Amino acid sequence: PAATAPARLDDLPLRPELVGEEPYGAPQLDVPYRLNVNENPYSPSAAVIADIAAAAATAATAANRYPDREARALRDDLARYLGHGLTADEVWAANGSNEVMLHVLGAFGGPGRSVLSFAPTYSMYPEYARDTHTTWLAAPRADDFTIDPDQAVAAIEQHRPDVVFVTSPNNPTGTAVALSTLELIIEAAPGVVVVDEAYYEFARAGTPSALELLPRYPRLAVTRTMSKAFAFAGGRLGYLAASPAFVDALRIVRLPYHLSAVTQAVARAALAHADELLARVADLRDARDDLAAWLAGRGFEVAESDANFILFGKFADRHAVWQGLLDHGVLIRETGPKEWLRVSAGTPEEMAAFKDALDRVTKEQG
Ligand code: PMP
Question: Which has the least CB within 10 A, 34, 80, 141, 309?
Answer without folding.
Answer: 80
